[in-house]
Design a protein that fits this description.
The chain contains 14 helices and 13 strands. By secondary structure, the chain is α/β, with parallel strands linked by helices. The strands form two sheets. It has a seven-stranded mixed sheet with strand order 10-9-8-7-11-12-13. Strands 1, 2, 3, 4, 5 and 6 form a six-stranded mixed sheet that branches. Helix 7 links the parallel strand 7 and strand 8. The chain starts with a helix and ends with a helix. Bound molecules: nicotinamide-adenine-dinucleotide. Nicotinamide-adenine-dinucleotide (NAD) binds next to helix 7 and strand 8.
């Protein structure tokens, strides 16, 4: 996957007149680490393989860490993490956030482990990262991703706090983001990725003079997918009608609109789509069927490789906004391009999460450190995110029109332009 992404960037860089040497810089990650993590789980001591990919940090001044989520999912591999870390480098560039790109993960299915097990694994992982001098506000700052959440980040943060009493650390509070608000987290981080996507989508529709009354099909019902559905209950976003939702076990489709409020209430008690009563929320469908529904906007918000060469020619959605990173493969993107289906890539559409994390990291480094002023911090996160997401939309659109290229190419070309400028300043 990583190699395929680099080849795609090579093509876009050529079209944009960006020197080949910059792509060579991106083709080799700054560092890849495989670390043995030993943790006591129910069936005794067990080894896990923690993988970390630090991709590229285009910023020259110090104190600019690598940023990217920690993932717990059976599909974690170094190749995937390198591709996701590259996405982070580009995403931060598009949003003008002074972070390098990174990603970490362990190939495990969280559903196979108890909460106590997951805590033990996370704490051991944090200790190994600390021992390897990786987990630090100025080096690598993890946040939540697939299979991890604010609770995971709290466990990790707790370990950092314990270590910071024994070894000198400059900013232990800023070493982890996506923490619970009551533990030095940031209001507005939890739903930032979903809110950012909807801000960008609304701006896109307004700019294109399209109606805001659009039907949405959302694949995945975790941090991104559930919050997307939930935010459509707010008056500002109520023109969006959610007609299909899913999790790993399947989904529901109701062309008249899924009753999102009632569904979320029920899902909190029974968080498995396949175990929820059928018919009440719509027809039960598979994830494959959800992707092929005749909707206005399809939002894959689960995992990578969902729209591939096998189904890209059958997509009936009018547009796709990528909530999940790499949900659309490179060959599938080509097919969508030939079919004129506009597609906003994840590096643009889901940048709200890292934007909120950037604010959390900055506030944690500032003089207030532990103090969270809920109202003012929430205002800061929401307003910063709004201006950044709107800027990404406008910049992407302007380049797309000027160069007569796809939105996908436009977003990547802008990110590459930014990275190449920064690297030039850094290396001369
Ligand atoms: P999550 O673990 O909270 O939720 C993932 C959802 O996807 C779950 O509902 C799960 O059931 C579903 N799922 C898993 N495998 C599936 C499959 N094979 N088919 C269909 N559904 C499946 O994860 P999340 O944090 O919501 O992240 C989702 C995507 O968004 C990922 O690609 C992630 O990298 C990206 N993303 C997340 C954030 C964030 O702030 N959490 C930020 C930017 C991008």
């Amino acid at each position: 996957m990583f190699g395929e992404k680099i080849e795609q960037l090579r093509r876009y860089a050529k079209n944009a007149g960006i020197a080949e040497s910059f792509i060579e810089e991106l083709a080799v990650p700054k560092g890849v680490h495989e670390i043995k993590v030993r943790a006591r789980v129910q069936d005794g001591q067990k080894n896990f393989r923690l993988m970390v990919a630090l991709h590229c940090n285009p910023h020259s001044t110090g104190a600019r860490p690598y940023k990217g989520g920690l993932r717990y999912h059976p599909g974690v591999s170094m190749d995937l993490l390198k591709a996701l870390a590259l996405d982070m480098t580009e995403k931060c560039a598009l949003a003008d956030l002074h972070f390098g790109g990174a990603k970490s993960g362990i190939a495990l299915n969280p559903a196979d482990y108890s909460e106590a097990d997951l805590r033990a694994i996370t704490e051991s992982a944090a200790e190994e990262l600390l021992r390897n001098n990786l987990l630090d506000a100025d080096i690598y700052v993890p946040g939540p991703d697939v299979g991890t959440n604010a609770q995971t980040m709290y466990w990790m943060y707790n370990k950092v706090s314990q270590w910071s009493t024994k070894i000198p650390m400059r900013n232990p509070i800023a070493a982890v983001t996506g923490k619970p608000v009551e533990y030095d987290g940031c209001p507005g981080r939890e739903d930032a990725t979903a809110r950012g996507l909807l801000i960008l989508l609304k701006d896109f529709l307004k700019r294109a003079a399209m109606s805001e009354s659009q039907t949405l099909a959302i694949q995945g019902f975790g941090n991104v997918g559930m919050n997307l559905a939930k935010i459509t209950l707010e008056p500002e976003y109520s023109n969006f009608k959610v007609v299909a939702i899913s999790d790993v076990g399947g989904g529901f489709y109701n062309p008249k609109g899924v009753n999102v409020a009632k569904f979320i209430e029920r899902y909190r008690v029974q968080p498995r789509f396949d175990l929820l009563s059928r018919g009440e929320f719509g027809d039960f469908i598979s994830n494959e069927e959800l992707l092929l529904l005749p909707v206005d906007i399809l939002i894959p918000a689960a995992i990578e490789n969902q729209i591939t060469e096998a189904n890209a020619d059958k997509i009936k959605a009018q547009m796709i906004f990528e909530g999940a990173n790499e949900a659309i493969t490179v060959p599938a993107a080509e097919i969508l391009g030939q079919r004129n289906i506009p597609y906003m890539p994840g590096i643009a559409a889901n940048a709200g999460g890292v934007t909120a994390s950037y604010i959390e990291w900055s506030l944690n480094r500032g003089p207030r450190r532990h103090v969270v002023d809920f109202e003012s911090d929430l205002k800061l996160v929401r307003s910063t995110m709004k201006s950044i997401m709107i800027k990404i939309d406008r910049d992407t659109y302007t380049y797309h029109v000027e160069k007569q290229c796809s939105l996908l190419e436009s977003a990547h070309a802008l990110a590459l332009r930014y990275i190449s400028r920064r690297l030039k300043e850094k290396h001369g």
